[in-house]
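Possible race condition, two jobs.
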Amino acid sequence: MIGFLVPSYVKYFGWQSLNVQKTTRRMLKTGSPDLKSISILASVPVAWSTYNVAVRLLYSIDHPPPAPLINLGNYLVSLATFQIAFLVQFALRKFSSSGQSSEVESSAEHESTISYYYAGFELGLYLFLGSTIQLEALKLTTASKAAFIVQTTSVLVPTIEAILGRFPFKRILPSVILASIGIILFSVDDPKSLGALDFSRLNLGDALALFAAVFYSLHVIRLGTLSTKLRKTFDLARAKTISQLCIASIYTTLTLTSTGGVGEYLANVTFNDLQASALILIWLGVVTTAFPQWAQTRGQMSIPPSVASILYSTQPVWSSITAFVVLSEQFPLKDIVAGVAIISASLLAI
């Protein structure tokens, strides 16, 4: 059975390097992008922008949970959100329909569920590897350099797409240049220090950050293909979350049992610490994880990965706005210029 399903999955969801995606062809021919999908994708970096602020608030607690537990709790809340949404959808369908279904439809749904979990495992693995490698990179390099290197997804995605023959790189080149300028300005404290970003002098931390960007780019590209094949947005997003939770559970168990981090945390944590942590983890799981999982899957059903990556590059803009509202951080002039460049790149891309 497995020997049949795996080759079928590879054949059905292959990279198709010699063909342009149907969504890309349709968008290029009509010249009129799906505004609803663009709006949904544009909301993703807004949700992501609250992640750093929420984590900073979490780390300001007297006894914050260890990082692996934060990730695990995040994915647990995310999956719980999808399960609640699923139960609500199921109840509404039962209420609004007679509930009759044929055995053929039931069989087809079962077969498609297997494909969703295969796809969810692949996408979830990319995201888990990217986030885990990024955390390791932050131990060895500065946050600003890591942020810039990870955001090179806005360049990597259209470049890989162009190599695969899926998208004309020259069409999106001006947007890539503008987005890159904006990301660089956001990522350095002093524009005069741009020489420090010389890729020929990458240290281990910088190299890991670039490696993380590759996995994030693979997620965006593969999601563009899989979301056009598997049209049940909710099911694909939930399968991806289940994959992340399973992988994170194994990783957390191996990491914390070897270091004794759980025992130390439980010995010092107070009820107030747990209460504050729970509230923040709910926000992380619902707003920064579950919603983007669904929104990315829904939006990339009709928007090419190259355009989506430019929209995602607006995250530093929204992060600065969120930090200003919640943490009262100020906008330096370079951030304003960077924000204008990134927003212009997104408008030009669509």
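Job #2 (started ~2 s after job #1):
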Amino acid sequence: MFENIGIFKLAGRAMQHASQRQTVTAANIANSDTPGFTAHSVARFSDHMEQGSFAIKATRDSHLPFASSQPVSAKIVDTGQAVDLETQMLDAAQIAQDHRRALSIYKSTLGLMKTSLGKM
């Protein structure tokens, strides 16, 4: 029912992106002692939004501009630097916060919709 509502799509994509970033960060931490391993990174979701990686489109003039037809598939970049565990742990905390923010947006929007329909 909610899969075609733009704000739910955007929040879902933000959660998927956070999951992808967390996977890369976890791999960096796991391989920190591997000889020759260099850290990898994925840009933040907000960076993708600012660069226009997720094109905003509306199929009608009355639609809110939150929909995106592009899937989340951020590019993983090799930084060429050794893994710094302190930086990776800070990144993991930031990623967790980004995921919580996206989940909060999703829950808040769902609550608003339920309230407007008299379901609360």
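DSSP finds three helices and two strands in the chain.
Logs attached separately.
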